[in-house]
Amino acid sequence: MKITRQKHAKKNMGFYKHNFQFREPFQVLVDGTFCHAALRNKIQIREQLPGYLGGATQLCTTRCILKELESLGKALYGAKLIAQSFQVRSCSHHKDPVSGSACLLSMVEEGNPHHFFVATQDQDLANKVKKKAGVPLLFIIQNTMVLDKPSPKSLAFVQTLQTSQLVPEHQKQSIVQLKEKEGLAKIEGEKRRKRKRAGGPNPLSCLKKKKKTQESQKPAEKKKRRRKRIRVKTEAVLSTQKNEKE
Predict the structure, then answer these.
(1) Within a domain: residue 38?
(2) CB-based contact 136:117 (threshold 8 Å)
């Protein structure tokens, strides 16, 4: 199960890397529900998440999330301590704090320009995140962290880019790199080489040319033989004339 889970994570990470330009260190926005689930299931987020995502990570939170955890009291005291160890990303709610879910949604607005992951156990927040293209979603299930598969919104966004031929140059390069990794570029190169070989000279045409050369040589030989016969006749005539004179 661990191997298959790692394969799915690698596949999903490849999708976000090549279509939405996610790069290391991966920035993960973590809310209080995710911290509480990690504490309850004895998951070390800082130690385990980089290995699962296949690269360096930066665990982040916001002031709104920290204030929300403080307001919930002792029940989420452990989750608050975990969240306080993360980097704090500035949000637009300095004077008027909002709920943690509303704050996280505002951080991934306008196409998620900072390439944030969202780590949450809030199902309502997860459904809203899935409606935004290019926002990876992390959650905890059966004592393990799971990277959700790309949402239909993300898949549709990539498909429209490809069909409308509006793919940027850096995405075209990533597609070429993918082909090289999968070995598709080699197969295409072999097909092109085979086509060039098929367009070579026809061996039958070479044989016809040889026959023509042989036929052109035959009359030359006949001419030489005729010249020899004429010479023999002239020599015989001359000899007879000499004999008559004598």
Answers:
(1) yes
(2) yes
Is the CB of residue 126 less than 8 Å from the CB of residue 147?
Answer: no
Cβ atoms of 140 and 146 closer than 8 Å: yes
- What are residue 171's phi and psi, to 5 degrees? -75, -35
Instruction: List all residues 6 or more positions away from 16 whose beta carbon is below 8 Å from its beta carbon.
Output: 22, 134, 136, 150
CATH of residue 81's domain is: 3.40.50.1010
Do residues 53 and 147 lie in contact, with contact meaning Cβ atoms separated by under 8 Å?
A: yes
Is this model's pTM higher than 0.90 or not? no
Task: Give domain status of residue 200, yes or no.
Answer: no
- In-domain check, residue 208: no
Q: What's the CA gap between 119 and 29, in Å, rounded?
A: 6
What radius of gyration, in Å, describes the C-alpha atoms of the chain?
Answer: 41
Please tell me which residue, 242 or 215, carries the higher pLDDT value: 242
- pLDDT tens sequence across 126-154: 999 999 999 999 999 988 999 999 999 99
Quote the domain boundaries for residue 130.
5-152
- Determine the Cα angle at 199 with ends 198 and 204, to 5°: 90
Q: Are 147 and 138 in contact (CB under 8 A)?
A: yes
Q: Given this model, what pLDDT does residue 174 score?
A: 75
Those residues whose C-beta lies under 8 Å from the C-beta of residue 84, and which sit 6 or more positions away, are: 66
Q: What is the pLDDT of residue 226?
A: 55
Residue 224 located in a structural domain: no
Report pLDDT for 169.
Answer: 64
- For 41-45, 64-68, 202-206, 224-228, which range has the lowest pLDDT when averaged over its residues? 224-228
